[in-house]
Amino acid sequence: MSIRKLTILHNNDMHGDFLPHQADGHLEGGISYLANYIQRVRHKEESVLYVNAGDMFRGSIIDSEFRGISTIELMNYLAPDVFAVGNHEVDYGVAHLLFLEKCARFPIINANLYIKTNRSRLFKPYQIIEINGLNIMFIGVITEEVLSTTKNEEIIGSFIDLWEAAEEVGVIIDNYKTTKVDLTVLVTHIGLEADKQLAAMLNPEWGVDMIIGAHSHTLLESPIFINGIPIVQVGHGSSYMGRWDIEIDTDKEKIAELSWTLVPITSDTCEPDPIMEQLLHSYKDRTDEKYSRIITTFKRPLTHPSRYQETELGNLFADLLQEDSSYEVMLMASGSIRKETLGPILTYQDLKEVVPYDEAVIMLSVTGKQFRHMMQFMLRDEALAPDAHTEFYQLSKGMRILYNKTTRQIEEFKLNGEDITDERMIRIAVQDGFHYNSFTEFFDVPIEEVLANAKPRKVITSQFAIFEELLSSRQHIDSHVEGRIEIKE
After folding, report:
1. How far apart are CA 245 and CA 7, in angstroms?
2. How far apart are the C-alpha atoms of 444 and 93, rounded to whole Å?
3. CATH H-level, domain 3-284: superfamily
4. Phi, psi of 278 (to 5 degrees)
5. DSSP annotation string for 162-216
6. Cβ proximity of 420 and 413 under 8 Å
């Protein structure tokens, strides 16, 4: 028996989470501690690969100020052996992503983004790495959200159907059967539920050994097995690392032993990496100088613990956009609020990080019947599932929705205390770009039907300017969950 050992480290959805934070008497996360752990394992074990499953961008002023260049430099020091494209990699535009790829000193893979005119791929679909006498194949798969993010870049396409993605995996594997592959890993950015569906579709003859997932920010304590394929994911940020320890019998050409560990990254288990510290602070010092001014104070920290429920921060930002407006209800995209806690001191940097997407706001007119259907669709089972990753909206003051999860019906539907009848016209507002362009998909009401009610009107050109102006003009701000969206179990 000839046994070869391999360790695969992986994480996902870092979103610019570069700095450690206090938790239970120690520091948790931070790219410096993460670098220390990776370097320690590389020195201790005989063969180690580090895989990142996408979404390194957004969430930090250090990232947005330098439009991802700072992040690429920090990632260059971490030196991933494979990086798979996530949906937020295109936030600065596809052209800018291709520029950043040239700055990266690590391979970026994706199997299903292509140019529509000639079907040319934007990235290499796979990477085969030879290590310790083993050939390890990694294949990158992206989420369909990329198409929504890049609607203005109409030449970019994607295999958005899971069947197509599964078939593409099979094509890639079949085309390279002439190359001896000892382990096949899918590095996906489609979310846990889609990972489960994809795993169930894979032909066992293709020999996919595992899925390293991302996008749904799911923190798993142990792998989930579907169709005999283990699926893993380690939440988001820099607080955890996943670790596979694998023994491969090269004579029998199969895995002899396989184990997975969820590794916390804390100051108790790791030390700061001095080179990463210096590199990180070369960017942080510049952003601190520019963004450290105080905008306002809250009475207490305000929270946004989940994007699939009414939250304090959601109500705050929705109300700010609805204040003195010409529309009656603001639908603030819950996912565009990028921090779980904010305050009690709010700096300019905090504001840039919590609402990094400076979007315009579009006013539309909908009937009460259309609006009810929109909200009922938003509250469907898929959106309320534990591992949901779909769109959800925070509603401005005056709205009251009581949704019965058992009957899947809205039992109360009111605005300013009055029932919203089917015939009533309601002026609503949504953020421009991603959400306006995806209106039909996110609300299950054809945008053409809505535009037939009244022409759309851009009523705010910069939501960030509204936030900054209104927050700067007041102090000791507070916000509460009021039952604007109540879900009856």
Report:
1. 5
2. 27
3. Metallo-dependent phosphatases (3.60.21.10)
4. -65, -45
5. HHHHHHHHHHHHHHTTTS--SEEEEEEES-HHHHHHHHHHS-GGG---EEE--SS
6. yes
- The span from the CA of 170 to the CA of 201, in Å, is 10
Over residues 51-69, the mean pLDDT reads: 91
- SS3 string, 261-276, reads EEEECECCCCCCCHHH
Say which residue the tokens 């001191």 belong to: 345
Nearest CA-CA partner of 335 in 93, 143, 71, 482: 143
Q: Cis omega before residue 344 (within 30°)?
A: yes
Question: 395-409, pLDDT tens digit by residue?
Answer: 999 999 999 999 999
Please tell me the distance from the alpha carbon of residue 248 to that of residue 7, in angstroms, as a whole number: 11
- Record the tokens describing residue 153, joined without a space: 């870049």
What CA–CA distance (Å, rounded) separates 226 from 170?
17
- Tens digit of each residue's pLDDT (9 = 90 or more) over 313-339: 999 999 999 999 999 999 999 999 999
Please report the beta strands in 275-328, taking only residues with DSSP state E, as ranges in sequence order. Answer: 294-297, 302-303
125 close to 172: Cβ distance less than 8 angstroms: yes
Q: How far apart are CA 486 and CA 432, in angstroms?
A: 27
- Rg of the chain over all Cα atoms, to the nearest angstrom: 23
Nearest to 61 by CA among 464, 455, 466: 464
Domain ranges of the chain: 3-284, 292-488
CATH class of 292-488: alpha beta
CB 456 within 8 A of CB 359: no
